[in-house]
Please model this.
Amino acid sequence: KIVFVFLVALGLALVLMTALESSFDEKLWKEDPLNRYKMSKDLVESGILVGKSRQEVLQLLGMSDASTYNGEPHLLYTMGKSPSFIDSQEEVLVVIFRDSLVTNVVLTDE
Model:
């Protein structure tokens, strides 16, 4: 009986995780900033932004907050808060440039 409850809980967790993630969609990204968190993992893991210029990133993702850390330019995109049982912090997508091209994309709690 305990195994059954565990398997049901595991199945529900997987369904919820899948529902909270989706592939990057340029139109949804620009139209619904509060739900960007659903696409953030895909942007990081797919590498879709790596090698792109600042202008290409701005065209794809829209305007952002600009930042400089250790002399390297960054673009910052607020992800919105994902639904959570505990109070989660808002994540920020950080697009890092070197020599005018994206070299890395990371998610961080701000």
In short: The beta strands are 65-69, 72-78, 91-98, 101-109. The CA atoms of residues 3 and 9 lie 10 Å apart.
